Amino acid sequence: PDDPGANYARLLAAADSSDLVLLCSYLSPNYSAASATAAAPVLEFMRTISRRGSHVVLVNFGNPYLYQQLPDVTTYLIAWGGFPISQRAAAQALLGINAITGRLPIAIPPAFSMGAGEVRATLAPAAAPGVSRP
Predict the structure, then answer these.
(1) Structural domain contains residue 45
(2) How far is residue 94 CA from its own chain's centroid?
C-alpha cells in the first residue's frame, strides 16, 4: 500500500506471537559512504521489532551498514545483494541446507571489525526434513 504504516500494527502483533522473526531488508548500497539510513518510519518499525521479546534475525540484502542503525539485533546475516541467487543462498543458509561462512571485507563500526564473521556447518539431512540439497 501507499502507507506501509497501515501494516505495522498487524506485523508487530505477528512478531509478538512468534519465537523467531526474520527481518529482511534491502537498502540500496551507497558506495561512497560507510553508513546507511532507511526511511524514518521503516527504521522505527525495524527498531521496534528488534526490541520486542522475539529473537530477531536481520537478513540484509543491501547496504551492510544498516546494522549501525539497529544495534539491538543480535543475529545479522549479510547476503550482499538482492539478486535471486543471494536470496536463495540466504534462505538455504538459514535453513541449514548450506553452511554459513564468510568474513567481512569491510568494518561496520563500532560492532564489527574487518574480518569478523561466523562459520556454521550444514545441518544433517534429518534435521531439515523435506528439504533437498542442491
Answers:
(1) yes
(2) 10
| Residue 34 placed within a domain | yes
For residue 30, give the CATH number of its domain: 3.40.50
CB 47 within 8 A of CB 70: yes
pLDDT tens, residue by residue, 49-85: 998 878 999 999 988 888 999 988 989 999 988 899 9
- Distance, CA of 15 to CA of 8 (rounded, Å): 10
CA separation for the pair 49, 9 (Å, rounded): 11
Ramachandran region of residue 33, left (φ > 0), alpha (ψ -120 to 50) or beta?
beta
Does the model's pTM come out above 0.85?
no
- How many domains does the chain contain in total? 1
- Max Cα separation, the chain? 45
Q: Which residues share a beta bridge with 112?
A: 108
Q: How far apart are CA 126 and CA 133, in angstroms?
A: 12
Residue 106 pLDDT greater than 80, yes or no: yes
Contact call for residues 4 and 42 (beta carbons, < 8 A):
yes
Q: Domain limits at 42?
A: 5-127
Instruction: Report the alpha-carbon distance of residue 123 to residue 61 in Å, rounded.
Output: 23
